[in-house]
TrEMBL record:
SMART domains: AAA. Residues 311-541 form the Sigma-54 factor interaction domain. It comes from Anaerosalibacter massiliensis. This is Sigma 54-interacting transcriptional regulator. CDD domains: AAA (cd00009). Keywords: ATP-binding, Coiled coil, DNA-binding, Nucleotide-binding, Transcription, Transcription regulation. The lineage of its organism: Bacteria, Bacillati, Bacillota, Tissierellia, Tissierellales.
Length: 619
């Protein structure tokens, strides 16, 4: 038959809140399972150890996010037990220490951070007396992890915590580790260091019996426990659903006196754990943050689509180009567009201008490779009347002057002669130049976008391109990938280009057969998008029906001897080609993880990043 206490225990254990009752002497009469769960008394420890106490020679490992806050009032003096004698360590500092209890001959290993200098994490890895030990205090996620020979002991916290692991000095095996509820059990870091016995942990260990104990034995001190005790003694204190902190746990508490007539029998405390609510709110905030990031990403993707309707493709490579181009359009920095002939560098330059603050100003496209060298200077900078034989009597404005306020696009900048590069450098440095035959400086305010299919670094080494000019134009580089590296865009390109070609040649709209599309996908495209346009135009002219068949595609395939010749490159170029392929392959294999890629390649960080920049590798 159930007695009166059994009924009370049964019904209070059914409550979803913690429930504690003390008598008028502060002795615990009721302490239900939910309260034990909140304060860690029912904590289910997975790793077992026997009861005992610390002994001389034991190895002590401590991770503390704020000394003296929730570790039994640990002080720098207490740390002398394990050989730490450092008066600079103060209350509130974060600390990691490994030392030997009661043996000053063995120097401890420790590090600490002042409370005002706290960073995201405090970490230490050490080999101490043959034991591999790692400790991480994670202030962001509020977790302290102590790892001993690959065995992890983790403690989460809300405000403050002192975490401890003790290893037997002889066997180097774990004999004690800190777990939730250490305050109630009287097993704080400081108490253990002062020699207090600790309880056993594990499946068969005895649970802490709190009934009949003084409330201060379980909850030490704190304003809420003091109020609870005083209410039990007879003081007129009560409240409903107030935020309180007990043993470092944030709670919502209701405190009520327990009376029999006029006599005060004790007090009851109902406790709701809001750490779970906090965690739920944190998860909600993280979800909202992720949602905002997704919305920003969608807005960016929408902006990219609207900004670059003429840059066709949805491959990872071309989307990265569009993303860079959008960023470039929002600045006035000099842009260098790199890529093979026929990749659409001129389209990209125009799109950057059209999306910039200068979109209503002139855009002047200059093909430096198409203008004879002896005329290029006068075309770029203009000339005064009578400057040379055949010069106009009125003089002439150059492209730079015509582009004033807007953008000048210097296509194939690698073709400019070294002598003309000096004059171009001056424009980039101070926005001024002299016309051919002129005596007065012309000032301009414009943005320069350059493009080339050459390797300007090699051109510098060979002395054909000035190093100072290269660094001036290479402020914001964008590499446009060849069509063979983004073949998944071919269908979209065909879909976009073919109707325009049909309109140009004056025929009805045509479609392309599946077999023809497969042939296009297998081609290596040395001429890139321009070659695709030419092939489609020829096919549109050859096709008499509404469908372009494989027989209408005039794609020249290479024979074996041509393939062989393609592979015979200068040794330097062959090495560079292999390096680039090896780095890209490593990055793809490790899904963009640069640390793993550089380790697999066996190269250092500096060399790795230099080569990524050199080969314009984007992952």
């Amino acid at each position: 038959m159930l007695n009166e206490y059994d009924y009370v225990e049964m019904f209070t254990n059914m409550m979803s809140e913690g429930f504690i009752v003390i008598d008028n002497n502060g002795i615990i009469q009721v302490y239900n399972n939910k309260a034990k769960d909140i304060f860690g008394i029912l904590h289910n420890q997975q790793i077992s150890h026997k009861s005992g106490q610390i002994e001389n020679g034991d190895i002590v490992i401590i991770g503390d996010n704020a000394i003296g806050k929730d570790d039994g009032n640990l002080t720098s003096s207490s740390l002398r037990y394990i050989g730490v004698e450092d008066e600079n360590i103060e209350k509130g500092d974060a600390l990691i220490v490994v030392g030997v209890y009661g043996n000053k001959d063995i120097k401890p290993v420790y590090l600490y951070q002042k409370s005002k200098d706290i960073t995201d994490t405090l970490k230490m890895n050490t080999s101490f007396l043959g034991v591999e030990i790692g400790v991480v205090v994670d202030f962001v996620n509020k977790i302290i992890t102590i790892e001993v020979d690959s065995e992890k002991y983790t403690m989460t916290y809300i405000n403050y915590i002192g975490h401890m692991v003790i290893l037997d000095g002889q066997t180097k095996r774990m004999k004690f580790y800190q777990a939730q509820g250490y305050t109630a059990k009287g097993e704080s870091v400081n108490e253990i260091l002062e020699g207090k016995s600790y309880r056993a942990k594990g499946e068969n260990s005895e649970l802490l019996n709190v009934i009949g104990k003084n409330i201060f034995e379980i909850h030490k001190s704190g304003s809420t426990i003091k109020e609870f005790y005083e209410a039990g003694k007879g003081k007129n204190i009560s409240y409903v659903n107030e935020f309180k902190e007990i043993n470092g746990f944030p709670t919502i508490c209701t405190l009520l006196p327990v009376n029999q007539g006029e006599k005060r029998l004790g007090a009851a405390l109902k406790v709701e754990d809001i750490s779970e609510i906090k965690r739920a709110l944190k998860e909600r905030d993280e979800a909202l943050s992720n949602l905002e990031k997704m919305e920003r990403k969608l807005d960016e993707e929408r902006e990219i689509v609207e900004a670059f309707p003429n840059i066709i493709g949805e491959s990872k490579e071309i989307n990265y180009v569009k993303k860079l181009a959008l960023k470039a359009s929002k600045t006035n920095s000099t842009v260098l567009i790199l890529g093979e002939s026929g990749t659409g560098k001129n389209l990209l330059a125009r799109a950057i201008h059209d999306n910039s603050s200068k979109k209503d100003k002139p855009f002047i496209h200059v093909n430096c490779g198409a203008i004879p060298e002896n005329l290029l200077e006068s075309e770029l900078f203009g000339y005064e009347k009578g400057a040379f034989t055949g010069a106009s009597n009125y003089g002439k404005k150059g492209f730079f002057e015509l582009a004033n306020g807007g953008t000048i696009f210097l296509d194939e900048i690698g073709e400019i002669s070294p002598s003309l590069q000096v004059k171009l450098l001056q424009v980039l440095q101070d926005g001024s130049f002299y016309k051919v035959g002129g005596q007065e400086k012309v000032k301009v305010d414009l943005r320069i976008i350059s493009a080339t299919n050459k390797n300007l670094e090699e051109e510098m080494i060979e002395g054909r391109f000035r190093e100072d000019l290269y660094y001036r134009i290479n402020v914001f580089p964008i590499w446009v990938p060849p069509l063979r590296d983004r073949k998944e865009d071919i269908y979209l390109l065909v879909k976009s280009i073919l109707p325009k070609i049909c309109k140009k040649v004056g025929c009805k709209n045509k479609r392309i057969s599946g077999e023809s599309l497969n042939i296009l996908l297998k081609h290596s495209w040395p001429g890139n998008v321009r070659e695709l346009e030419n092939i489609l135009e020829r096919a549109a002219n050859l096709s008499e029906e509404n469908t372009i068949l494989s027989k209408h595609l005039t794609i020249r395939t290479k024979n074996k001897s041509e393939d062989l010749n393609d592979e015979i490159l200068p040794l330097k170029k062959s090495t560079q080609k292999f390096e680039k392929r090896a780095i890209k392959k490593a990055l793809e294999y490790y899904e963009g993880d640069k640390k793993k890629a550089m380790k697999a390649l066996g190269i250092g960080k500096t060399t790795f990043y230099e080569k990524i920049k050199k080969y314009n590798i984007n992952n």
